[in-house]
Design brief:
Helices cover 45% and strands 12% of the residues. It has 15 helices and 11 strands. The longest helix has 107 residues. A hairpin with a 5-residue loop joins β7 and β8. It is of the alpha/beta class and 509 residues long. The chain starts with a helix and ends in a 27-residue tail after the last strand. It has a 5-stranded mixed sheet.
């Protein structure tokens, strides 16, 4: 659509070309900046891309800027500083800055260069920012830097000389580099450069403008507003003669060194200092916030740990209390069971005294066999002597020892005539009781009879004669040892009594 319109306009403007050529000759002869007449050049109304007009690459500001820088290097025979291998005296090699890409990358600025002979022979260009003009302006504002905008138009005859003499001037390039000035450039045939020329109000080319943050004017009684991006100076027109032309390198260097930098740098240094102070305050606040969060986290962990410990202590107390309740209940149950068992056992003990304890044999009573003298030492220290016939049963011995545990208040005459609970009499009833109770003989009796020396246990066995017990043949000295009832909690087996001789001697009839 644009190309047919351009062709029609060019055809209409053909009669005016001679007049325009004459005017341009007169203006150049009188050294008057040539205005950009729209009817003749159409540069203020349209733009013509350097590359393919329909491709994506031509619309990308970064690609367009990179292509313009490459063509500038080819045309001038110079290279950008970042590509030249130029070294700073305080650096190890070429370095790049954020926001600048491509073959012409902005390097970290130094205060001085190493001017070797090979480097002095190399023509240098400043590093150009690769991107759109808006991004360039935002970078200058964000980084508090001075920006240099270079706009050219190939339709102007002064542009070629400007590129060769001004942009490659060592003094200008060094001044830009040392003062960390950010540079952006382009041809008005490209969209970004054309848009920038309209915003910067360029009227002829080549065009150079310097922009930077500057304070806004405000009444003294009002708080100063935030600084804004301001056009510091505009330079447009030819670059020759080299000492006085508006875009000559010497003119730009003199303007920067004597006017612009002394006027702008103090304010920018102040802004950078304020920004650094704000950054330190932000970092301090961030550090304080991190310290506060860390302290809060530690406090929360301590509170949580304390709560867990208190909960664990409470649960432990509850478990201990529950265990104590269960133990008390078990003790009560054990005491009640023991009480019942003791009552039950006492009833049987009193019947055993009446029904199973045999009298001592009389002299000459041959039916019970030879008389045996048995000395008995009880757990409480009592010592008794009892005579048995060798035909008496071991049950009679155990029954006699068992009767010694009956308290004195239970007199023998009041002992029951029949076994408790209607059990059978004799050893048969005793064996039935043991079976019913589920206890072994030792546990049911609650004690054991042991020969004092040498120590030999005399086991209870139904129907067995005393004379058949080897250790009791001829009599002997025995010790009664209690056996702890399995239902009695917290009580151990009674201590074994000393088996020393207690002064009793074995006798036989």
């Amino acid at each position: 659509m644009t190309r047919p319109i351009r062709i029609v306009l060019n055809i209409i403007a053909i009669p005016l070309y001679p007049i325009f050529s004459l005017l341009r000759f007169l203006f150049r002869a009188l050294r008057i900046p040539l205005p950009n007449f729209a009817p003749f050049t159409f540069s203020s109304l349209s733009y013509r891309p350097l590359g393919p007009g329909q491709g994506k690459e031509a619309k990308d500001p970064k690609s367009v800027a990179e292509r313009w820088v490459l063509s500038l290097e080819e045309e001038t025979g110079a290279v950008c500083i970042s590509r030249s291998g130029q070294r700073r005296s305080n650096g190890d090699g070429p370095s790049t800055a954020t926001g600048v890409a491509g073959p012409s990358q902005l390097a970290s600025r130094g205060d001085s260069w190493d001017n070797t002979e090979a480097e002095r022979d190399t023509k240098l260009l400043p590093d150009f920012y690769l991107g759109s003009y808006e991004d360039f302006a935002r970078t200058c504002q964000r980084d508090v830097k001075i920006g240099c905008v270079v706009i050219v138009s190939e339709e102007h005859d002064d542009v070629a000389e400007f590129k060769r003499s001004t942009l490659t001037d060592p003094a200008l390039v060094r001044l830009i580099q040392e003062n960390d000035i950010l540079v952006w450039g382009g041809d008005i045939r490209d969209r970004e450069a054309w848009s920038a020329s309209q915003k910067l109000q360029a009227t002829t080319y080549p065009f150079v403008a310097f922009i930077s943050l500057q304070p806004r004017r405000a009444p003294a009684s009002v708080a100063p507003p935030a600084p804004t991006m301001t056009i510091l100076s505009r330079h447009q027109g030819p670059s020759i003669p080299s000492t006085s032309a508006p875009t000559a390198a010497e003119t730009l260097v003199r303007h920067l060194a004597e006017n612009l930098l002394p006027r702008v740098n103090p304010f920018l240094v102040k802004l950078r200092t304020q920004e650094a102070e704000r950054e330190r305050e932000r970092a301090l606040r961030a550090e304080q916030d991190r310290a506060f969060e860390e302290s809060r986290r530690r406090d929360a962990e301590r509170i949580q740990q304390r709560a867990l410990e208190e909960r664990a202590a409470t649960e432990e107390k509850q478990r201990a209390a529950a265990a104590e309740v269960r133990a008390a209940e078990e003790r009560r149950n054990a005491a009640e069971a023991k009480k019942q068992w003791d009552a039950h056992r006492m009833a049987w003990r009193r019947w055993i005294r009446r029904g199973l304890v045999v009298r001592e044999p009389r002299p000459g009573e041959a039916v019970r066999g030879k008389t045996m003298r048995v000395g008995v030492r009880m757990p409480d220290g009592r010592r008794v002597v009892r005579f048995f016939g060798e035909n008496d049963t071991v049950t009679a011995l155990y029954a006699y020892v068992d009767s010694l545990f009956i308290p004195p208040e239970f007199v023998q005459d009041a002992d029951p005539m029949s076994p408790p609970e209607g059990a059978k009499t004799g050893e048969e009833g005793l064996m039935g009781e043991m079976s019913t109770s589920g206890k072994s003989a030792d546990k049911w009796w609650g004690f054991q009879i042991v020969l004092a020396y040498p120590r030999r246990e005399i086991f209870w066995e139904a129907g067995k004669r005393v004379g058949d017990v080897d250790v009791l043949k001829g009599g002997g000295q025995v010790v009664v040892e209690l056996i702890a009832d399995e239902g009695a909690k917290g009580k151990g087996k009674a201590s074994v009594q000393d088996a020393d001789d207690d002064g009793y001697h074995t006798e036989s009839d």
